[in-house]
Structure formats: C-alpha cells, structure tokens
Amino acid sequence: MTHATPLIATLVSAFVLAYVAGMLAQRLRLPPIVGYLLAGVAIGPFTPGIVADQALAPELSEIGVILLMFGVGLHFSLGDLLAVRAIALPGAAVQIAIATALGMLLAWAMGWPVGAGLVLGVALSTASTVVLLRALEERSLLETQRGRIAIGWLIVEDLAMVLTLVLLPALAGLLGGTAQDGVNLYAALGLTLAKVAAFVAVMLLFGRRAIPWLLERTAGTGSRELFTLAVLGIALGVAYASAVLFGVSFALGAFFAGMVLNESKLSHQAAQDSLPFRDAFAVLFFVSVGMLFDPSILVRAPLPVLGVLAIILFGKSIGAFLIVRAFGRPTEVGLTIATSLAQIGEFAFILAGLGIELGLLPKDGRDLVLAGAILSICANPLLFIALDRWVARREAAHAAAAATIQPDLPPGPPLPERDHVILVGFGRVGSLVGQRLHGEGMPLALIEPDADAVERARTLGIAALVGNAAAVDKLAAVHIAHARAIVVAIPQPLEAGQIIRHAREANPGIAVLARAHSDEEVAYLLGCGADAAVMGEREIARSMCESVDGLARWFGRRDAEADPDAA
Minimal CA–CA distance to 462: which of 429, 407, 420, 408? Predict the structure, then answer.
C-alpha cells in the first residue's frame, strides 16, 4: 500500500474483496455477511497478502452504524419507544445480568480474576446494531411488534454500554486493574446520567422542531443534491455532536435524530436517499470486524472459544426468550428476540479494548470476544432462516387447524383461490391500492408482514395473510399459480425483485405490477420479470398534465361563453 493513499486503498480492497467473497457465499447458499467477514480476515494483519489500514476501517464502519440507526429512527416514533419500555427496559437489564454471570463463570473456569470475568461477561451481553437491523430489514420486521421490541431492547443495551464504558475506569482499581487517578465512581455516574438526560431533552425540545424544519426548507430549494446532503449532515452531525458534547454513543445519537425527523412529512424520502450509503458502509462494518480477527485463537484456545460461543448463541438467548415469555408475549416474539440477540458486535470490541487498557482483561480475552463475534455473526442468519421456517410451519398448522376445527369462524375473509389479484404490502401505497381494488369488487388476497396492518385490512373485508411474500410458501398459500395478477407495493426494490421472480416461476402468465422510486429501480424490476413498474414522480407528472389539460379545456369553454363570436 502506498503511504499517500491509505483511505483509497482501504476502501478499494474492502469493497472489491467484499463483493467477490459475498458473491461466492451467495453461490454457496450462505449469507453474504459470511463473505464480508472473510474478506476482512483476508485483508487483516493476521493473514498474508494485502493489509488494509486498521485505524481507518473501524471509523468508516462506524458511519454505517450511524446511518443504519438513523434509518431505524426514521421509522420509529417516540410513542413506539415508550410502548415497549415495559418489556425492553427490565428485559434487557435481566438479560445483561444473565450473560454477565455466564461470562464470569467461564472466566473463573479459565482461572481469570473477577475483573476479567466482569468485562468478558458484559462484552458478551450486547448485540450488534448492524446485524440485528440487517436481519429485521430483510424480513420486513422493523415496523412490527417484534421489531419494535427488539429495537427498544437494543436502545436499552446501548445506554447500559455507555454507562459501563464511563464507570469501568472508576471501578478498575477495585476490580484488580490499573486505578485511574481522579476518577470518582459516584461523580462519573451522576455526570453520565445528567449528560444523557440533557441530550434527550435537547433532542425532544429543540431537535424535534429544528431538524424537520431544516429538512423541509432544504426540500423547498428543489435541489436533490442539497436534500441528500442535508440528510447525511443531520445523521452524521447529530451523532458526532451527541458523542462529543453528551458522551452518548454515535448509534444512540443517530437513532434520536431519525426519530425526531420521523415527524416530518419528508421522512420517507430521507430514508430512501440514505439507503445506498447505509448499505455500503454497513458492509465496511463486517469487513472491519474480520480485519480484527486472529484465526490462530481457534487452535490456541478451542474450548474457551466454544464456551464463549455457547454463551452468545444459547445462554443469553435462552434467557431473553424466558424473559419475553414471562411478560406474557407469544412464543414467536420470544424466539425473534432470542434470535436477534444471538450475536455480539461493536460495543463488545470497544469494551474489550478498554478492559485491556485498564489491565482488567488479558489479551486473549479480546481474541475470544472477536472469535465469538465472527462465529455468532456467521451463525445468526442461519438461526433466522430456521426461525422463518418454524414460523411458516406454525402458521400453516394454525391455518389448517382453524379450517378443520372452526370452519365457520375463520380468522378473516377466505382467501380467493382463482382469477384474483395478489397485493404485496399494505403501507401508505399498498393500502390505497387495496381499498380501491376491493371497492371495485375485485377478488383480492393481501400478503403483509405486519399483523396490525393485516388486522386493518381484514376489518375492511380484504382477505389477508401475515408473512413475507419473498417466501415461496407464502405465495403458494395465496394460490399464486391461479392468480391473474400480482401488485408489489413495497418500497424495497431488492425484496420486490425476489418476489417477482418467485411469482414468475410459479405462474409464468401472471400480470406483474411493481412500485419503483427511480429509473434504475424501474429497469431492475422489469429485468426481474415485472410487466410494468410505476414510479411515483412519473405518475405525479402524468396526473399534473391531465389536470393542466382539464384546466385548458375549462378556460376554453369559459372564453367561448364570454365571447361567442370568437368561438
């Protein structure tokens, strides 16, 4: 690597190798995340060949965390956060305690002191923001009850980690590490709580008005570039300011910025504009994790690695599941939360590094944490696939039981079996389409992952099924082979493309209409097999032209009535 271009070399090597390894993983039917992690191992200092800049990669990946949490905040209101506090707050606290205790037990078995066990346990208790959000987004669960609980749980964990990072230096001397001069435990705790409270107050009182106002004024200029810059500036600027001025994490600051911007009418456009940046920098996160990993730990300490992995995949996940069930939530919610937390990420690395700096954690401890992170991140998508299959089988069994035991009391209007239209998505666009088609008496079957949206559709008399239409079994359940048309009204183009391909395979003659936001998305969806892709801007322009034609005809009639001779 030439000394003058470390940033360019790091970006090029990370993106190129991540693409190659991700494509290879996809061909082998493995999650692309596995490829991204292996790309990081390949350009890390512990393997021969290219060595990317280890200082730059984590900072670049942090941008991905910021943009991801900002995007989540754009779909998450303060009411959503408060609605899940009753389970997220005590649930996360108990789950952190369980994982910490298990980590201390493993450390004791390895002969480590109490301080090392405490750092290891707390590091294993927190889940990765990026991995969790990727899994929820791929399954359209962000705006469901399960997704909201998982995100609320994540926010509580982030706050707990912020407190831990502040208090650990004050406790280092008591725990057998290097005492920090001039650090008082109670003063540090009080100052941290005061800073967090001040940050929340500033965002709710000032940011709630200033951020939407700024974005709306920028949109008023008519410049797409300025609007995109405003979105990125708000996300990154608030995240950075929150960390520097208030001591909270980048992720937490970005989440609150997105949440207050959620009240703006432009929040959807802001989410769309930031999506490519979120995806690109999220890949850098996984690459940077791979760069930190020393594969030799798998040979040097195989049993401790298995112990760490068992705590991550089973210990804290079983604890989370039991906590959710204890609060009376359904098994499906409990399994979703448990699967979401079956991995560790960015805070674990920061905490392990601080533990070594304070003389609390041996260097092997960081390698164990990284090994646990790599292996759990690779395993997490597989756990979600298993969960998806379990949910699909359970729903099919419940539907069959309902049809057998209570044929006169179905959960909603019966699904049409032939010559019907399938609607995918019941959001802002899909709900309007569904109501219009249903109002015209057209046989209609809806697939929507949000149970609340399905319930709303059923109250309108629309036959609906809870689930992700990207799953082949869901399309089969709405009789895709005998449908006349499918309308894909979701805003995610990649997921829409997958649905279109599955629909074409099941019914080559079906008419396919999709929703798009750009010319590139139109081309992509048509390439996937759509007969037509409707872009919002084009439809607005067509509607405005029709309105102008109508005005012209009206003015013509008025002029003719006012001056018959001229006519």
Answer: 420
